[in-house]
Amino acid sequence: MTAADPTDSPGHRRRRFNPDRDVAEWHGKYLPYDLVKEFLLALVVVCVLVAGLAVIFSSPDDKPVTVRSWSAADPVDFAQTAITELDGTSAIATYGPPYNTAGTSQSIGPISPQKWLGVHHPIDTANDFVITPLKTLPDRPALDAAIATYTAAPPAQQTKWTTAYEKAVANATFAQGALNVPSGRYGPVGPMISALTSMARSGALDGALLSTRQFYSTDYTKPLLFIANGAYLANLAQGQHLSGSQWGMMNETGSYPGQAWLWLYTLWYQVPPMKTSPNADLQVWAIMMILTLLLALVPFIPGLRSIPRWTRVYRLIWRQHYRDSSAAKTATRGPTAAPPPSPVSSTA
Amino acid sequence: MTIDTTPDKTAPDSVAADRPEDADQWTAKLRHAAVEALPPERLLPDRQPAYVASWIYVFGVLTLAALAVVILTGVVLAIFGPSWWHESSTGLFVNSLHLWSVEVFFFSMVVHLWGKFFMAAWRGRRRATWITGVVAFVISVGAAFTGYLAQQNFDSQWISTQAKDGINATGAGAIFNVTNFGQMLMWHIMLLPLVVVLLVGLHVLLVRRRGVVPPFAIPLESAAGVEPAGPPRTTPNQEQS
To answer: Could you tell me if A221 and A318 lie in one domain?
Structure first.
């Protein structure tokens, strides 16, 4: 290999050779190397490996939770969640952009892209999750009257009813197909939530929650967010080691490797201050964006681009080359010449 | 019997060569630029420098092979539709092939990436090769992520409802709605794979154009107290300012 120093080509400023940026021109041997054969062999190896893994381990496919399955398995949790949707205290009701303006957007100092981009998938949980679906139920004059009473009432009265119901439903039970809530002064809210629970258990609410009213739909935002507001989904996830404190979404159900490549992203959620910060998501994304940018721009960053030369891992990778170079140099110098320093002890 | 060896004047080869009147033709210019940048012997060389002798080089081609299997199994899943693999044992097997080829793809790619990092593979005007590789890795993460969101099972429900907070915090949630199955499926089977394949293709072409990065030249000579051998000379591997 021949070293190259400043270029003397016309039109270019002479620049000092930098081992972390430049390379010496290779004048050594070229050996036969069959790239096509190598690729086809690699393809065969991957096919065999993947087929073996697929036969032995298959792939996870746990059934999704529906509003129907949730309300059937835990109707009290459903009712407790439904009242928070009606009174606007659920996680989505108080989320902020892109769903509504009720919550505080995450920010780092004055930077708040969530706020800047605004509401793009508007969700009014009281109407979208409770009142509008209930209105689709036919031939229910008592329910229609309850909805009319609730919607016509002043906000303060609505809050009194929902607060009273929220306290009562905390001690609710479910027996013989009916939700039993301790009596209280919650006016029309009781019949509304009971009707919604029955609707959910029948499966009708799943369809009613779909975001669009056209026949074909592929947007499950509303039912998904409603389900995620309850404790049922989170409890199932906890049991499958999927919660945030369990390195969350990089895992999969079962013992599958999941998205192991997200380990660094998930790691930041486990350490302070992100672990408890209300702006954790934005902070973690900011860190990851900076790290990704640094990785992409390593070739331009002095110090960072010298790490490979400093760490000397390359000696392991090219050990055969250095061994051959050392042997060739010994042969050139002859038996009386001093032996060259070993690649291991020499410095880069 | 005599054989007519007269060149066929109507054949494309006889008109494709460099006629002076075609010098300004865009097609001819593009062909010249392409052949000059990547002549066939550089595009598909049958020789490599002697230093290309390490197991680490295998992981680049393994990544390409795994990507081929990912795409092939993804095409089969696309042919039969998103519900197929939930209802059919054959579909489940193809989905399993898809899943495990993705795992092999990422494993190979990560080893390849860190191997190239410790080789400082950006040296010698190979910075674009490095950057396209890193960007291909990042876009691949997005492609795999949307795949998890488009599974239509418990995993996709949980991952989407958890991931929405991160995406929304960046403002991207205004456009990129992780709880919208249809949107995520389109991103997974069309947009992101297209970008990944284009980036990987560009990355491979850049590797072929610049060649495999040579080892650090310094160890033996510098330890002996001498500069690396050879006079300073212009080399295509040196950065120009």
So the answer is: no
Q: Is A285 close to B158, i.e. CB distance below 8 A?
A: no
Tens of pLDDT, residue by residue over A119-161, are 999 999 999 999 999 999 999 999 999 999 999 999 999 999 9
Q: Is the ipTM of this complex over 0.85?
A: yes
Containing domain of residue A90, as a range? 67-232
Distances (CA, A) of B183 to B82, B188, B190: 13, 9, 11
Which residues in chain A have their CB less than 8 angstroms from residue B116's CB?
A: none
- The answer to whether residue A227 sits within a structural domain is yes
Give B108's DSSP letter.
H
Q: How much is the pTM?
A: 0.88
Asked, for residue A90, whether it belongs to a domain, the answer is yes
Contacts within 8 Å (CB) and 24+ apart, A30-33: A30/B47, A30/B48, A30/B49, A30/B50, A31/B47, A31/B48, A31/B49, A31/B50, A31/B52, A31/B53, A32/B46, A32/B47, A33/B45, A33/B46, A33/B47, A33/B48, A33/B52
Residues B204, A298: Cα–Cα separation, whole Å = 20
Binary contact (A281, B159; C-beta < 8 A): no
